[in-house]
Structures are given as structure tokens and as C-alpha cells.
Design brief:
The protein is of the alpha+beta class. It has one domain: Nonribosomal peptide synthetase, condensation domain (Chloramphenicol Acetyltransferase, 2-Layer Sandwich), CATH 3.30.559.30. The strands form three sheets. A seven-stranded mixed beta sheet has the order 8-16-15-12-9-10-11, sandwiched between helices. Strands 5-6-7-2-14-13 form a six-stranded mixed beta sheet, with helices on both faces. A hairpin with a 7-residue loop joins β6 and β7. α8 crosses α9 and α8 crosses α12.
Length: about 450
């Protein structure tokens, strides 16, 4: 029987190649939960209580597969079922050092997050983090970006949590098919030959139908219309190293929504205006702020995930950030005007053909440390609106994690959960040791924009 060959798609490959240049492309989430329901009689976290919940991610095939490099003449990387899958090897206990506060937790997560995932196993890990104040426990879930994007990760990892305190009793092995045999070297070589032939025929077809190629090119140019040729050059954009630092800002979701509604816009636009406010303070502190300075943020846009499958976003926006503007209201108004324009013509990398050309993508990754398309990155996701539970323990907080790549050394992810909005800033601490100034500016901007709309029952920050 001929083996099924699953080559990595171009938009999966573009997440793998940066790792070879020292930029592991991982994403993840940090859950902080009640500790007591997870502890055994000895007071330690009982992993046997957690494994059934964690094992639910295996319903998604990519979480059961390893990335295999076939070698010369056998084509590009393929997804192969892990024939020795052991869920327990993906879950490790790492105590958070004293005093177990927010700073200690984030420092521990940053240290774990910056390490590459083991390529011999499926590309995801879970760390259980006891030792937090008030007996709480952290759960850090990290997966490779080639498996999925943020929206797909939210769907897959969200299966770990329950909408009620009592978790289902089903074991994690339920309904998993046995691993498929890996393709042989001969099968890989034949498949590679067929794919090269298909690629050549596609090139010939494009040459005989130039109107379709020209139309895709026009779409890409139209999506980028109105921008200067390059994003401004600032100290933000320097070649990223291997170190990571994590900072978190927390907001009342109802207050942010109320502020967005009052300005006839979205939570995402409020966050973009907050990024501009944070960058205003950071560049002012560095002596780089100038009147009228406008930077660019890259914002992915994902479609609905397919059942049982993960995805990677292929559309997005490049949004102008009026960093040189001093007034919060005018800053938000400028962001709203720009995002409305961009939403009418998003940058669709799938339809433009960019993601169908591995050669173009390899070039983009090779030039990532010198790119001048974007200055900063923002991903915003909607999480569970009501409280969730992990193996009977209430989830107190959910924090998103994104990563940095190329010369984008500051990356921001936002996630709503149970009436709160968590914003996590990932940075290279060697390039940006003063990123706390940016985080403080982001917080202060949101606080000023939401001040008139705070619910009477909620404490002010």
C-alpha cells in the first residue's frame, strides 16, 4: 500500500525556515489555575489528573506528527505520524522560583519559551508550573507556528479546558487512529519528481495566461497602495537574537469595548492606538520621536478554522500607527480611518500567489533581518467569554504568547477571557531592555481612553 505523503505547505514552510536562522517560531498560551484541585495527597501536582485533559489536543493530526526532512532528491519536509507517541513526554513539571509572583512566573516562561522544540517529537510542549503565590499553578502550552496560527491554536488548545468544573472522564486515547507508516525513500523521490513536473506545468500555464498573474499582482499592489515604500527606520528594527522577555498588561474588557463603541470602532483599533501610545513613550525616551512619525503594525487576519484541522492566517493588514501624535483621541481616530481602508482591501497572501512560491518565501525569510515592511506585530484573539476549568481547577487567567522574528524585536498578542483582556508583549531583552517603557505607555493609553467607561462595580487600575 502506498503511504500518504503530506508535504509541508508553503505557509507552513515559511514558519519552519526562520528557526534555521535562530528564530524559533513558536506560539502559545499561559493559563493560571487554582492549585488545590490538581494536587495529590502528597501536595504535589498530580499529572495523572492533567494528562486526560492535555491529551485532547491529539484529536488534531498535527499534534501527533513529527516534521521529517527526507534529504536530497526526495523533496521538501513532510509530516509523518509519530510511531512512538507518548503523551507524558510532552508534559513536564518546572517549579517557579521564590517568591512565585508575576515577575518570577514570566521569567520562567520566557526561559522555557526561548528554547527550540525537540524536532524528534511532535512540535508542542506543556510545562506545569507550581510554586505560585496563593497556591496557584501555571500551565504553559507552547507549539510550533507551523502546526497552526493563533486562531487555530486557540481552537486546539481550548479543547484542554472545560466549561464546567467536572471534566469528562473519557481517556485521551479515545478514537485515535493508529499511526500511519512513513513513506519510503523511493516513494518520497517519486513524489518529489511528480511535484517538480507539476510546478513546471504551472509555470508554463502562467506564461500562457499572463492576465491571471497580472491580476494577482494588481491585487497585491492595491492592498499596499497609500503606503510609503518603506516603514520608517528606528531602533525598534534590529536583528533579533535568541533571548526572550515577557511582559503583561491587563484590562477590563467591558471598559475597552465601551471605549471602542463610543468611537464607533473595534477593540482591535483601541489596541492599535495603544501600541502607538506605547511606541510614542518608548521612542521619546530614546530620543527618536519626531512630529508626524508614522510606523507600521502587521496584523494577521484568520478565517474560520476547518473542523479537526489547524490553519495559518494568509490575510492581514499593514496598519499605520500615528506614533508622533500626542493626543489619544486623534491617535485613535487616525487608526480607525486607516483600518477601515485596509479592511476594504486586505493583503491576501494566498490569492496574491506569494504563498505558492517557495522561492519567494525563502527570499523573504533570508531578508527578514533587513525587512522594512513592518515595525511591530499585533495579534488579537477572542477567548472564552465565560470562566473555564482545567481538570476541575478554575482557570483564573489566560495569557497569549507570540514571538519575534527577523528584525521585529517587539511582538504583541491580546486575548480576551471571562471579562478580562490580557496583552502579552514578547521582546528580545538584549535589543530592548527598556521595553517596560513601551508596556507602561500602552497601559496608560488604554487607561485614558477607557476612563469614562469603567463599570461602577470594577476597581480602577
Amino acid at each position: 500500500m502506498t503511504a500518504i505523503i503530506e508535504r509541508l505547505t508553503p505557509h507552513e514552510l515559511v514558519e519552519v525556515w526562520p528557526g534555521r536562522r535562530g528564530w524559533p517560531q513558536t506560539i502559545g498560551a499561559l493559563a493560571v489555575v487554582e492549585g488545590a484541585p490538581l494536587r495529590g495527597s502528597d501536595g504535589d501536582v498530580a499529572l495523572d489528573r492533567l494528562l486526560p485533559a492535555v491529551g485532547r489536543v491529539l484529536a488534531w493530526p498535527r499534534f501527533r506528527q513529527v516534521l521529517h526532512e527526507p534529504g536530497p532528491g526526495r523533496g521538501g519536509p513532510v509530516w509523518v505520524d509519530d510511531g512512538d507517541l507518548d503523551l507524558a513526554r510532552h508534559v513536564t513539571v518546572v517549579p517557579v522560583p521564590t517568591p512565585g509572583d508575576d515577575a518570577a512566573l514570566l521569567a520562567t516562561c520566557a526561559r522555557l519559551y526561548e528554547a527550540p522544540l525537540d524536532p524528534a517529537r511532535p512540535l508542542w510542549r506543556v510545562w506545569v508550573l507550581p510554586g505560585l503565590t496563593d497556591g496557584r499553578v501555571g500551565l504553559l502550552v507552547v507549539l510550533h507556528h507551523a502546526l497552526t496560527d493563533g486562531a487555530g491554536a486557540l481552537t486546539a488548545v481550548g479543547a484542554v479546558f472545560d466549561p464546567e468544573p467536572a471534566p469528562p472522564a473519557a481517556p485521551w486515547t479515545t478514537a485515535l487512529r493508529p499511526p500511519r507508516p512513513a513513506p519510503t525513500n523511493a516513494e518520497l523521490a517519486l513524489d518529489a519528481l511528480r511535484r517538480r513536473g507539476h510546478a513546471l506545468r504551472s509555470i508554463a500555464a502562467a506564461a500562457t495566461h499572463p492576465r491571471g498573474v497580472a491580476g494577482a499582482a494588481r491585487q497585491s499592489r492595491k492592498a499596499l497602495s497609500g503606503y510609503d515604500r518603506h516603514a520608517p527606520r528606528t531602533s525598534l528594527n534590529q536583528r533579533v537574537g535568541r533571548r526572550r522577555a515577557l511582559h503583561v498588561a491587563r484590562f477590563d474588557l467591558d471598559a475597552v469595548r465601551a471605549a471602542a463603541h463610543a468611537h464607533a470602532t473595534t477593540v482591535n483599533d483601541v489596541l492599535l492606538a495603544a501600541l502607538a501610545g506605547g511606541l510614542h513613550e518608548l521612542l521619546a525616551a530614546r530620543g527618536e520621536l519626531s512630529p508626524g512619525l508614522v510606523l507600521r503594525a502587521s496584523v494577521p487576519v484568520a478565517g474560520p478554522p476547518e473542523p479537526g484541522r489547524t490553519q495559518n492566517a494568509r490575510t492581514g493588514m499593514l496598519v499605520r500607527l500615528p506614533v508622533g501624535e500626542d493626543d489619544d483621541e486623534r491617535r485613535l481616530a487616525a487608526v480607525v480611518a486607516d483600518t477601515q481602508e485596509r479592511k476594504r482591501q486586505p493583503l491576501d497572501l494566498g490569492r496574491s500567489g506569494v504563498l505558492s512560491s517557495p522561492l519567494v518565501l525563502r527570499g523573504a525569510v533570508a531578508l527578514a533581518a533587513r525587512q522594512r515592511v513592518s515595525n511591530i506585530y499585533l495579534a488579537n484573539l477572542a477567548g472564552p467569554p465565560k470562566p473555564a476549568w482545567l481538570a476541575g481547577a478554575r482557570v483564573l487567567e489566560l495569557l497569549p504568547l507570540t514571538n519575534v522574528v527577523g528584525n521585529i524585536g517587539v511582538s504583541v498578542a491580546a486575548l480576551s477571557y471571562a471579562g478580562r483582556l490580557a496583552v502579552t508583549v514578547t521582546s528580545d531583552p538584549e535589543l530592548h531592555p527598556d521595553v517596560g517603557v513601551f508596556v507602561h505607555g500602552l497601559e496608560r493609553t488604554v487607561e485614558r481612553l477607557t476612563a469614562p467607561y469603567w463599570p461602577a462595580s470594577s476597581p480602577r487600575p
